[in-house]
């Protein structure tokens, strides 16, 4: 067939508006082809064959140009509808805008408004972040819609392996696409400010560089499927208690250096399609209504091009105000929060009224609408993507199994207790969690997977000989406890929090018998938490009395017989380890490793996988050592309305190293079945110009192949302001090194890596002086140091003042 050569038409925004009113000539060439329209030298197809010039339908034009054309075709009513989602099914008492429709994909979190008249379909958004969250079973449908439950955020980040995370994202994104969803509400990268945050399992780290790099890799992987992501919750959503109304007092420096940095990296490196603003207020204003955050910083400073959506019901002080519909809708739209989710009739009313009265400017509405249109235009539904509803779950099971095992952190391994390779000898498996394995946390971050492989199943499949009497005792007990827990949560409703399952009582004589017959004991300790509430210290952060007793008795009995005890931690966030770690021979931090968890643990304990995960957060000796412990949850204590981040930038290891507080396990720590030697730390120059490369050689000096995570910390001069003793500025993971094999890694340092944020100068400034480079295996295990000079102070970036304090307060200083 003869090809029609069509001149590429680039129509500026202005031209697009002007030419939509001009007359046109049809120059139809072939019967099969739609007629061509020529206007002022530009040639377009009349795609609808209706003689009308619909610029927005012409895919040769940029999405921006098409969206600009569409905005002009929309009525005010359509615009108001478009600025919010279509409601949330299952939320009684809230009449949805256009009928809380289940949408194309049941169980998804929401969708945008469909404009049939203009051929604009609804975009479907669904949670995230441990995999796609949709309903697995549909009414009158014999097919199932299970998704892969991948490891939780803490587990993924502990791999420190960006390429691996990208492959996880790619798999996750293909489930998004093949189940007909357009945007995954993930990744979540809030900073672990305090170990008790109930959603830390979804988040990556106490360090913004790790958070940002892992999030970028995840975004790249997911979006490689041409579906979108929503990096969340922007920003400083660090506690669940009163999350809809908590006012956080935070300095601009702490915001920029700690709480925003990860988002900055993710936006600049991976171009997420959307950002989700958080629930909380910062210095007196909701994040969803902060122009400095959503426009000055996110868009103008970082160059973000996508849309911002609220978190679900974000900007309301609580459930009562949601029902009453009192919020600051217009301020949110003006701030650059384009889409209000999940969408309420009260919001529409305000928008229409404020548009009419002129309080809400047309330009603001049009800009928000245009950005949402751009999202729709690039989503799979716009091109009518024929999703299969059959993602490759078998392949993804392999990916999650591998990612989970690489995220496991070997906290302790006395006398090479692990790997345990003798499959002839019997293994005693204790702890209710071994039989009732925890896949991931609860709330919007949980995934409806078909089956989770427990430790029992994983070890069995790996060929271990497990003590049958223990299985016969524990298995029915665990099943009963799981059923009771499920019943309890069902009664409490959607916001019910998970509770720790009680341990089975077993007597000393029974344990002694096991110690006599088995070669080794595996004891799993489990913890779960979820959205809507925070964790507590007693019986959660601290291990429960019955757990200590269990460990004591098992350790005593097994050690008396010269046998080893391994603790497996099936947890989502940090727990206390200092008081009991000496009682056992090995500790494997397995995290909540997703649906293949039991297989992933078996891969590590059997030595099939040499553990290479490292902590992305500090495990303190005791909870009270946490820098934010003093102001955690805020005041008044029984029902906090505000919280002051007095610890400033001294979050996590920045605090522990600067203030010389000894942790139980430090940030960056993780053992291996092999050993590594570091050598030849070299700088590309001893004076910093506009960038610097640090190279380091790592050699596997042990007997087993393995990977090492190399961390580069900087210790900056601090003449003008106080600074943490060391800050992570780069990291890299080696490939698998065979025994004796070495590799040389290159780590880059850019000017901004040297800079701290000086509030009095509104600038990121790298002071002149000597910078110490610390290259190590953890934040405390520094292997080599070197230094470079910055001859003259560098003002790396000048910015507009943001986050004006509503209440003055003193920040912690060393
Ligand atoms: C959570 C978000 C989630 C949203 C939609 C909110 O409660 O905070 O993380 O994406 O619900 O389910």
Can you walk through the features of this model?
Residues 708-779 form the Fibronectin type III-like domain. Belongs to the glycosyl hydrolase 3 family. The protein is of the alpha/beta class and 814 residues long. The protein contains 23 helices and 31 strands. It folds into three domains: 104-345, Glycoside hydrolase, family 3, N-terminal domain (TIM Barrel, Alpha-Beta Barrel); 393-665, Rossmann fold (3-Layer(aba) Sandwich), CATH 3.40.50.1700; 676-798, Sandwich (Immunoglobulin-like), CATH 2.60.40.10. The chain is 29% helix and 18% strand. The model is unreliable at 1-31 and 95-99 (pLDDT under 50). Beta-D-glucopyranose is lined by residues 109, 127, 185, 232, 311-312, 444, 531.
Short key terms for the protein model shown above:
31 strands; alpha/beta; TIM Barrel; Immunoglobulin-like; 6-stranded mixed β-sheet; globular; binds beta-D-glucopyranose; 814 residues; 18% strand
